[in-house]
Specification:
The complex is a heterodimer.
Chain A lengths: L2 E4 L11 E2 L13 E4 H6 L11 E4 L17 E6 L6 H12 L5 E6 L6 H6 L4 E4 L9 H4 L16 H4 L2
Parallel strand pairs in A: 2-3, 3-4, 4-5, 5-6, 6-7
Antiparallel strand pairs in A: 1-7
Chain B lengths: L5 H22 L5 H9 L3 E3 L4 E6 L4 E3 H14 L3 E4 L4 E4 L7 H10 L32 H11 L14 E4 L13 E7 L5 E7 L11 E8 L3 H15 L10 H8 L1 H15 L8 H9 L26 H10 E3 L5 E6 L10 E3 H14 L3 E4 L5 E7 L3 H10 L14 E2 L14 H10 L3 H7 L4 E4 L13 E8 L2 E8 L11 E2 L9 H15 L6 H8 L2 H8 L4
Parallel strand pairs in B: 6-7, 15-16, 16-17
Antiparallel strand pairs in B: 1-2, 2-5, 3-13, 4-5, 4-12, 7-8, 8-9, 10-11, 11-14, 13-14, 17-18, 18-19
Classes of the chains: A alpha/beta, B alpha+beta.
The complex binds iron/sulfur cluster.
Iron/sulfur cluster (SF4) binds next to loops of chain B.
């Protein structure tokens, strides 16, 4: 069963967001739809004028194409076609750090619990796990490390500026 | 040498705990093979032909005697009593048990060692020059920079799932002993006209199926911008490197497809956003890193008694003189030298060491070289700070332990990958070929007459034995289930790196030694005074070699 987690490992209850598949071509009538990038680009009267919607990027898509709109969305999804496809890590940092996005950033698709720490460091704050094992204790995965060397979305100051 | 503080130590402990949990979860069936794969790889653990293989990092090649003793203990306790030095300043265990790997990592952490990112599609161990800090042609000691890059790359959250593995080498000398031109990123420390330190940055070098010499994309990167610039390169690669075909996934393919100019522009554009941001190095951090790599307590020259310098006594035996000629290197401090311990005696797989030898190296390091050694990408060990007056004593002891084969730089100082005996990717065995060559060319007079020549053997196209950059390269190939060997000539990993050219049709294993002998004979016939093998080969090209070898068969 799917689990939606926040970046402390707590289950997010009553999540309103629905991911709209790439091949969708009807009109959007529901609020809280996460629209595929291309759909949003192709839809001249974009539904988020009237409805609160979000957008999602596949790992090969470029947030640059909608840079000036990024902050209008309350939720942005980034899709991982396989957990070995690490492009989403870069996209997340890009959206958070370059565009200063402050809304919810969701990782979905094929991600595994052992990636949660790195994902959250890169700026994700919600995670849709497709089939986590029941024994899994999500909190465990977020505080594996108390020491981090690099500057990242969660901590812009690298360790060498914090070392004491 | 770098000493871990509580941050570094805590991180290692947390990493061990994490891997223990991952391993338990895998063994309990909660993680699939596919999902456990990158996790174990990023902790150095492969599943090989015969058993798991654990690759342990030796950052920039530096090892203390305490670390050597720990490695000896680990090979005794968890393995079969020997280990293997690789061509990238790592050490591998060939027979660990999966269940025990967390314990091995915990033992390593006690001596500030780890296997983090020693395999997998991530940033690998940072390699460097085995003569760092001691050679007179050095612009600056590369090791502090290696350590800075090691920390930056360790558990870098953005770059743990790259298209493919990623290797960085740093040199601080004009003579490139770190093979920076055949790395994904090569960094060469240089000074600008104002005397400031910076890096010449090369990208897209590499061996493997598509060997490429790296291209300079930044002539002078001021040192404080090192990490922001590396972030920019990796980010561009992570976003745009190919992921559809693992043979086209290395950064070299992207650089080639875009051209280095376009790649450099893209990196610069990315870098502008991070430049001068918080990841910019501070002078304090640079000074902190440098503080760990100060010169040891060398004796001043006056304190050497010329009469006690038994290395120049004429009574010493010829074997000693030979060893001194081949295995000893000059040092920037008068009265000191660097000494190679050869791990290439006849009959031993290049780079293999027993636990007793690891202990012995530790003892030699303590007695003769301030308790430190370096491992080289040619799979030997260097004692970097030996008093010349100690050479004769060191030689005797090294000889007793089998480290004094006077063959450094000669044909039998081969680089050889584990090949078909151990590696599941191999097309052919490589160790038996190396051994046959060692046996054929065991006449030292002959070897000395031939002089410097590098012979590199890989058991498949992945080129772990760096065959493309051997003066003579041997590559194992498989044709219809039978092992053949292709020979290449003219490669070089040095300052002006070149890739070898294929000689012609491949040979059976039992023909390789004859072919190499003919190659050497062709060199001897054509050389002119003072030419090494590579000089002659570059001058005369491939044709004379082809004629000599394929003439009769035709
Ligand atoms: S070159 Fe091939 S055979 Fe040799 S170690 Fe590498 S992958 Fe294995």
């Amino acid at each position: 069963m799917q689990k939606l987690l926040d970046n402390t490992g707590q289950i997010i209850e009553n999540d309103p967001w629905v991911i709209v598949p790439k091949d969708f071509d009807g009109p959007v009538t529901k609020a809280h739809s996460l629209l595929p990038l291309q759909y949003w680009l192709d839809t001249p009267s974009n539904p988020d004028q009237e409805l609160p919607t979000g957008i999602w990027f596949d790992s090969n898509e470029e947030p640059e194409t909608v840079a000036e709109h990024i902050n209008r969305w309350a939720c942005i999804g980034i899709h991982f076609p396989t957990f070995m496809d690490g492009r989403g890590f870069t996209l997340a940092r890009f959206i958070r750090e370059r565009y200063g996005y402050a809304g919810q950033l969701r990782a979905f698709g094929h991600i595994i619990p052992d990636q949660l720490f790195f994902l959250s460091r890169c700026g994700f704050d919600s995670f849709l796990l497709e089939s986590p094992s029941d024994e899994m204790d999500p909190e465990l995965y977020f505080d594996n490390f108390s020491v981090i060397y690099q500057s990242c979305a969660d901590q812009p100051q690298p360790l060498f500026r914090r070392r004491a | 040498m770098y000493i871990y503080d509580h941050y570094d130590k805590t991180l290692l402990e947390e990493r061990v705990a994490q891997f223990r949990r991952q391993t338990e979860s895998y063994l309990a069936g909660h993680l699939s093979d596919d999902e456990f794969l990158p996790l174990r790889l990023q902790n150095g653990l492969y599943i090989q032909r015969l058993a798991p293989m654990l690759r342990i990092n030796i950052p920039y090649g530096m090892l203390s005697s305490a670390q050597l003793r720990k490695l000896a203990h680990i090979t005794r306790t968890y393995d079969k009593g020997y280990a293997h030095f690789t061509t990238r300043q790592n050490i591998q265990l060939n027979w660990p048990q999966l269940e025990e790997v967390p314990d091995i990592l915990a033992e390593l952490a006690e001596v500030e060692m780890h296997a983090i990112q020693s395999s997998g599609s991530c940033i690998r161990n940072i390699t460097s020059d085995e003569f760092a800090g001691m050679s007179s042609d050095e612009t600056e000691d590369p090791r502090p920079w290696c350590e800075i890059v090691r920390q930056w790359s360790t558990l870098h959250p953005e770059f743990a799932f790259l298209p493919r593995k990623f290797k960085i080498a740093i040199t601080g000398s004009e003579t490139d002993r770190a093979a920076t031109q055949v790395h994904d990123i090569g960094l060469q420390i240089i000074k600008n006209d104002a005397g400031e330190t910076g890096f010449r940055v090369l990208v897209g070098g590499g061996l493997g199926r598509t060997p490429v010499i790296g291209t300079v994309i930044k002539e002078f990167l001021p040192a404080i911008h090192l990490l922001t610039y590396l972030d920019a390169i990796l980010r561009v690669y992570n976003r745009y490197g190919r992921r559809d075909n693992k043979y086209k996934a290395r950064i070299k393919i992207l650089v080639k497809a875009w051209t280095p100019e376009v790649f450099a522009k893209k990196v610069d554009a990315e870098w502008l956003h991070a430049k001068d941001g918080p990841a910019t190095l501070t002078l304090e951090e640079i000074a902190r890193a440098k503080s760990f790599f100060t010169a040891p307590d060398y004796l001043s020259q006056e304190s050497f008694n010329p009469n006690s310098d038994n290395s120049i006594s004429s009574e010493l035996p010829v074997p000693f003189m030979r060893w001194r000629d081949r295995n000893v290197r000059p040092h920037k401090i008068p009265g000191y030298c660097g000494v190679f311990l050869s791990l290439k005696p006849t009959g031993v797989a290049p780079g293999d060491v027993t636990e007793r030898q690891l202990e012995a190296i530790a003892n030699l390091a303590d007695r003769f070289s301030f308790g430190e050694v370096r491992v080289t990408h040619q799979q030997n060990v260097v004692l970097a700070d030996v008093k010349t007056s100690d050479l004769a004593d060191l030689w005797r002891e090294a000889k007793d332990m089998g480290f004094a084969t006077p063959n450094i730089g000669t044909l039998t100082d081969m680089i050889c990958c584990p090949g078909g005996d151990f590696c599941s990717l191999a097309n052919a065995k490589s160790i038996p070929v190396a051994e046959a060559l060692q046996r054929r060319f065991d006449d030292m007079d002959y070897l000395y007459d031939i002089g410097d020549v590098s012979l590199n053997i890989s058991g498949c196209m992945n080129a772990c034995g760096h065959h493309h950059v051997g003066n003579i390269g041997v590559l194992g190939v498989d044709k219809k289930g039978q092992e053949f060997y292709q020979i290449q000539l003219g490669g070089s990993a040095g300052t002006n790196a070149t890739l070898g050219n294929v000689l012609g049709p491949s040979f059976f294993a039992n023909e390789v030694s004859d072919v190499i002998e003919k190659i050497l004979q062709t060199y001897v016939d054509h050389r002119i005074d003072g030419e090494q093998f590579i000089d002659t080969q570059r001058r005369i090209g491939m044709a004379p070699f082809k004629e000599c070898i394929y003439a009769k068969a035709a």
